[in-house]
Amino acid sequence: MSEQQSEQSDKQKYEFRKVIEDLKDYRGSGTQLVSIYIPEDKLVSDVVAHVTQEHSEASNIKSKQTRTNVQDALTSIKDRLRYYDTHPPEKGMVIFSGAFDVGGGQTDMVTKVLESPPDPIQSFRYHCDSEFLTEPLEEMLADKGLFGLIVLDRREANVGWLKGKRVEPVKSASSLVPGKQRKGGQSAQRFARLRLEAIDNFYQEVAEMANDLFVPERHDLDGVLVGGPSPTKDEFLDGDYLHHEIGDMVLGKFDVAYTDESGLYDLVDAAQEVLSEHEMLEDKQVMEEFFKELHNGDLATYGFQQTRKNLVMGAVDRLLISEDLRKDAITFECPEGHEEFELVARRADTPEHTCSRCGEDAAEVDREDAIDHLMTIAEQRGTETLFVSTDFEKGEQLVNAFGGIAGLLRYSTGV
Questions:
Q1: CB-neighbour burial class of residue 414 (10 A; exposed 0-12, middle 13-18, buried 19+)
Q2: Residue 179: pLDDT band by 50, 70, 90 thresholds?
């Protein structure tokens, strides 16, 4: 994946995450919040027919308010589906619609359409409840990394993927390696030689299977995990059967009892520590670089105001944003036309603001999500944006000590 594609993916995931957080706040007084997951190979006409059928069946709901709200939600969904031709967009789409409680016995209506999610929608799903069904999307957003999986012993082998948290078995093979007991009439040496040849042939077959799967994806591959009993996995790796680029990407070998498809899942469980460490490797490296510049150099910036100034100047090489940052950026303007910016809690009331240049009271003229605000400037200046996890010490410090916003500079600015 190119750097530009990676940034677009990060931005898309952030936009999805924002919508999901909003959706999780909505509550319906009855089972009136509708969620529809639509895979890309599903005909839109079939979805419309399903929604029409649900609309008809909703007439049997006893509560008049719930009945009205469900039918209104389904009508809104049908209206949105009219914008699509025969099929949904690539990777599918999700539609959320329903009436949510706003207090005092009042409700309001929301309809959200999320196109082309991070991972393809696997199957059609219609869900009606007092909450929106967001878990499948949340799992996609939690997905990180692409890892190759190999489990083998001298009897069988399985090869597959770990895509985020999903294990996908792909290929399997069975060996012709004879047992340790030789057949009658064969000398011990001849039997041992034939057995070693059969083991070697099987290892070659497994390697070919893995190479065919992994080599085309090697530029997107984050690593390879190998599992099985000893000494099988050791012999396989020590024998250099894998393509050299794939062999160099092996992150570890793990003791796994089973080598059928279930063994791929056991391998992932056994490698959790390695996977967790690798998942945060880039975050840890960039934060180490930030702290090094902070203490011993002059190419670090932090905080909303300072980082924003450096962004506008085009001096920021990499913008570092905590995944836990939840703030709004407010634009203030005074009667003299001076523009200033302030960071506040998301959806908080507008604070009073006095212009620092002329002392006049300033009014709010714009408000947007702080991450959107900073990323827009970053895109205009050719700055890479990195989201940093809080699952390690320095990632937590980015939030607690630096307000969740920092940057590594292209050159020293003194700002």
A1: exposed
A2: low
Label residues 208-222 b or e (16+ Cβ within 10 Å = b): ebbbebbeeeeeebb
b/e burial code for range 80-102 (CB count within 10 A of at least 16 → b): ebeebeebbeeebbbbbbbbbee
Q: Which residue has the tokens 């200033």?
A: 340
What pLDDT was estimated at residue 101? 87
Average pLDDT, rounded, for the chain: 90
pTM of the model: 0.70
Residue 181 confidence (pLDDT): 57
- 29-52 pLDDT, tens digit each: 888 999 999 999 999 999 999 999
Q: 112 φ, ψ to 5°?
A: -125, 135
Q: Residues of CATH 3.30.420.60 domain(s) within the chain? A: 146-279
CATH for the 3-142 domain, from 3.30.960.10, 3.40.30.10, 3.40.50.300, 3.40.50.720: 3.30.960.10
The CATH fold assigned to 281-409 is: 60s Ribosomal Protein L30; Chain: A; (3.30.1330)
Q: How far is CA 384 from CA 8, 11, 97, in A?
A: 10, 11, 35
Residue 364 is predicted with a pLDDT of 95
In the predicted structure, residue 295 carries a pLDDT above the cut 60: yes
What are 98's strand-pairing partners?
Answer: 33, 110
> Which residues share a beta bridge with 407?
301, 319
| Pair of tokens at residue 299 | 């190419």
Gap between the Cα atoms of 331 and 343, Å rounded:
9
